[in-house]
Write a sequence for this structure.
């Protein structure tokens, strides 16, 4: 899941300042799960902005709220059309993908990001999320016992551990487990310690040009360009 | 048994489509199908008058039920899986006495030309008269005895039902315009039809005592239970001698024994052929009888009675329990050579009663001398003749008789208006089943509050009521134990649900679960209706099942803002105060009264239902300060204060970022009854005053 956090209220207020009619647009998938931009947060932000406005006596914005099932699919965005007729700006509480998808769909509409898209991660406990994947496009979890050193090692090294860990914790952050110690322990459990003894050559970043595209269509012709 | 569970008086028939609440077990078990959860909830908020209104909607004579109901609702109460059932009958009695039931005036006008005769004035007859009168018919009640009430008058002893209570209900009926004819024994229905009655309801009860069928039963000194109680209740004082035996184990036997004690008999013994576990009498009554010094001899039955020297020599035989019979109870079997003789002055046989219907009535009689009727229409084989109550069911409870009376009134109305009698369909689903152990474990155990009893030294002397009524605080503490079965939450918008599992994680009772297909479920029969998941659901997919509960906080906030606007007083402080339990016991009322000018109180049903947006809305109206006041550790639910504090922290962050002091938002959570929330409020008002002043000065400096 994509994890994000809502931008500070001050920043959001600064962004919307030039516009009068603001549609706060929530996203019903990842942003709902990570408490950053679901229907509840949309309504909370709506109320907070109204309160800020009432207290400051600044420009009078008019706010509207709506939450889509998912902002990253054009068909869902099609449901937006009638909502945007009387709107000057969309404040999207979708992730960075959502914001761009909305912008692509509505060429004449300014779209503002209401959240800082942070990482891909998982729930640790209610209200706490941890990063787990860097989307490097070259997954080596087989060799590292299902624990990603690219994401979870501060240095992102492929042949760990470094000389730094103390009592299983990272030298950069005493509260964080050393990913390579975790990898060692798990490989030991799985009786695959031989994997520790191998040398992994540096990863080749060259063949990953951005932006990437994946297609599952069978009939795509070779050499078809991007965009 | 006449099934009346699905019947309700027309007032109750309107159904709200968005109401997804389920029928709780207590309501399902009540023959009158009363909205028990609703009135218990109102009592827990201290809203006694409204509780009485709910009670009166479902029950023609609540004050009578408050004394004598056998409370099948309490037997069905799911709280008994946690600790002990809610004391529903005692709460009803509290609502009836403190809510001013005797002041209630029932009014009715006659709209129809048809007259209806009711033969018998027991609970079924009186209930039928009440509802028929309300439906607009001219009603005549015919009673063979000198006073109205049937078994309520001649069967139930005064210490269980004060006659004053019965008289008030009878007076109310008379004031409604029901015609009463006492000392009138009906011998022929034809005569009634000739007199112009278009329909007749036979409710003559079951006054004929069953015979023991043993030698010497006819001897002087042997009397049957119903006759004995009737004589005492109508003011006679039968002479019983010194030692009295009562045969039987039902409520009538207990009533007879306790009545004999109150007539001054020192030695009263009950002979029962089974053991205490099989006794059909109300266990509470049995206990009170034992307290009063009545001797219960189990597993004994009399076989021969001989009268010698003005005393009774009763030959008894000891029994043991054998195979179960058709009633499911173990059949008592005599033990060989266990015969013994006891001497008594009087023997009261209370082994059961049956109706005795005059054959001239021409109605078909069935098993146990009861009148045969169609259970859904209460019609007999004679056109225009209906029957109900003990005369149809054999000896049953007062509440069942009231339900039969109500059903008869509705069906007689259908008959007279030439309507096909359509049964009222229950559209709501029933809620039942057991609570799961993991849920039970998390439910706070709160001891059942029993109403006080009259000290037993004082009891045996006269016919004073034994059970006393709750005090205000006792009643509210008892009522807040209710688990509110069937008004919990549901995932109303499955399409919105992102299966984020927030509900599963925040529920204090481990109710939501993932089914095998990975869909989140919140089983209605486990939900404790605390409302935490509703406020925390990031998709706003979860709602409370009752529309009223869904809107409550928003509506109350709206009222508060509106009334503040009308009074032209800008609200200085808005407080969300819990209305249950501790606050309901008068604290809330004191806050209302003590609230200084500019403090507005929004009553909420548990602070767990106050969402973060509600707090923002309160500030949006221009309030300088907002507080949430909950019951803290006194709350009957888990974790409520924790979640309020979470939401308050979130809103405080917003306040900070727009230049308002976070201290303007406070949580008051009482940890004991000794604390006075009014004091805390005073301090807060002062604090807000100084904060406001500070910000005014700051504003001036800026400009």
């Amino acid at each position: 899941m994509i994890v994000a956090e809502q931008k500070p209220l001050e920043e959001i207020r600064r962004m919307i300042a030039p516009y009068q009619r603001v549609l706060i647009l929530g996203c019903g998938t990842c942003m709902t799960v990570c408490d950053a931009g679901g229907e509840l947060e949309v309504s909370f932000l709506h109320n907070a902005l109204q309160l800020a406005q009432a207290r400051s006596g600044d420009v009078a914005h008019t706010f509207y709220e709506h939450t889509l099932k998912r902002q990253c699919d054009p068909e869902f965005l099609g449901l937006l059309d009638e909502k945007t007729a009387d709107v000057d700006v969309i404040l999207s509480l979708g992730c960075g993908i959502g914001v761009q998808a909305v912008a692509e769909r509505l060429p004449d509409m300014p779209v503002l990001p209401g959240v800082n898209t942070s990482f891909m991660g998982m729930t640790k406990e209610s209200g706490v999320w941890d990063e787990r994947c860097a989307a490097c496009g070259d997954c080596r979890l087989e060799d590292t016992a299902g624990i990603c050193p690219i994401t979870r090692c501060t240095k992102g090294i492929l042949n760990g551990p470094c000389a730094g860990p103390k009592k299983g914790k990272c030298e950069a952050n005493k509260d964080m487990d050393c990913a390579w110690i975790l990898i060692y322990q798990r490989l030991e459990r799985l009786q695959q310690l031989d994997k520790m003894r191998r040398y992994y050559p540096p990863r080749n970043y060259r063949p990953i040009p951005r932006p990437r595209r994946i297609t599952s269509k069978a009939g795509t012709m070779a050499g078809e360009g991007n965009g | 048994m006449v099934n009346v569970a699905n019947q309700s008086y027309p007032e109750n028939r309107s159904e709200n489509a968005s109401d997804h609440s389920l029928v709780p077990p207590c309501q399902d078990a009540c023959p009158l199908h009363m909205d028990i959860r609703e009135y218990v909830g109102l009592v827990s908020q201290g809203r006694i008058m409204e509780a009485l209104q709910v009670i009166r909607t479902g029950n023609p004579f609540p004050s009578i039920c408050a004394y004598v109901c056998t409370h099948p609702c309490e037997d069905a109460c799911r709280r008994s899986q946690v600790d002990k059932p809610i004391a529903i009958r005692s709460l009803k009695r509290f609502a009836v006495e403190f809510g001013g039931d005797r002041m209630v005036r029932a009014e009715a006008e006659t709209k129809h030309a048809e007259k209806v005769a009711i033969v018998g004035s027991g609970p079924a007859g009186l209930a039928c008269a009440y509802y028929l009168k309300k439906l607009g018919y001219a009603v005549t009640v015919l009673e063979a005895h000198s006073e109205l009430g049937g078994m309520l008058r001649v069967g139930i002893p005064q210490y269980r039902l004060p006659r004053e209570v019965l008289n008030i209900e009878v007076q109310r009926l008379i004031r409604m315009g029901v015609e009463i004819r006492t000392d009138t024994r009906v011998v022929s229905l034809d005569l009634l039809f000739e007199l112009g009655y278009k329909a007749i309801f036979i409710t003559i009860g079951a006054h004929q005592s069953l015979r023991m069928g043993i030698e010497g039963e006819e001897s002087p000194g042997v009397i049957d239970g119903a006759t004995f109680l009737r004589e005492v209740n109508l003011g006679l004082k039968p002479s019983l001698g010194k030692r009295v035996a009562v045969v039987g184990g039902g409520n009538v036997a207990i009533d007879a024994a306790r009545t004999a004690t109150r007539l001054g008999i020192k030695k009263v013994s009950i002979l029962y052929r089974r053991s205490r576990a099989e006794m059909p009498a109300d266990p509470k009554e049995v206990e009170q009888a034992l307290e009063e010094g009545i001797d219960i001899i189990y597993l004994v039955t009399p076989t021969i009675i001989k009268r010698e020297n003005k005393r009774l020599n009763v030959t008894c035989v000891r029994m043991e329990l054998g195979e179960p019979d058709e009633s499911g109870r173990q059949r008592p079997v005599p033990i060989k050579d266990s015969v013994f003789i006891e001497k008594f002055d009087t023997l009261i046989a209370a082994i059961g009663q049956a109706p005795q219907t005059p054959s001239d009535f021409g109605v078909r009689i069935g098993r146990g001398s009861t009148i045969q009727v169609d259970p859904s229409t209460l019609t007999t084989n004679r056109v225009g003749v209906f029957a109900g109550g003990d005369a149809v069911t054999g000896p049953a409870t007062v509440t069942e008789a009231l339900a039969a009376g109500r059903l008869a009134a509705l069906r007689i109305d259908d008959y007279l208006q030439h309507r096909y009698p359509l049964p009222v369909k229950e559209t709501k689903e029933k809620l039942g089943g057991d609570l799961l152990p993991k849920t039970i474990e998390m439910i706070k155990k709160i001891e059942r509050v029993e109403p006080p009893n009259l000290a037993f030294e004082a009891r045996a002397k006269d016919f004073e009521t034994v059970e006393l009524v709750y005090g205000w605080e006792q009643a509210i503490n008892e009522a807040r134990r209710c688990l509110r079965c069937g008004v919990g939450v549901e995932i109303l918008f499955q399409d919105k649900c992102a299966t984020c599992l927030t509900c599963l994680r925040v529920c204090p009772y481990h109710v939501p679960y993932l089914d095998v297909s990975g869909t989140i479920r919140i089983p209605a029969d486990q939900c404790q209706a605390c409302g935490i998941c509703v406020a925390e659901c990031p998709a706003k997919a979860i709602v409370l099942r009752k529309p009223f509960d869904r809107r409550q906080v928003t509506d109350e906030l709206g009222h508060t803002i509106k009334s503040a606007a009308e009074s032209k007083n800008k609200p200085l402080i808005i407080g969300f105060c819990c209305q249950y339990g501790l606050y309901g016991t008068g604290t809330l009322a004191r806050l209302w009264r003590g609230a200084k000018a500019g403090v507005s109180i929004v009553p909420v049903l548990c602070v767990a239902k106050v969402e973060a947006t509600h707090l923002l809305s309160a500030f949006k109206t221009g309030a300088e300060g907002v507080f949430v006041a909950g019951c803290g550790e006194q709350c009957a639910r888990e974790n409520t204060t924790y979640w309020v504090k979470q939401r308050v922290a979130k809103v405080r962050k917003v306040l900070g970022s727009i230049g308002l002091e976070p201290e303007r938002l406070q949580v008051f959570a009482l940890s004991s009854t000794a604390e006075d929330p009014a004091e805390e409020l005073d301090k807060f008002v002062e604090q807000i005053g100084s904060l406001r002043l500070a910000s005014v000065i700051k504003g001036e400096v800026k400009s």
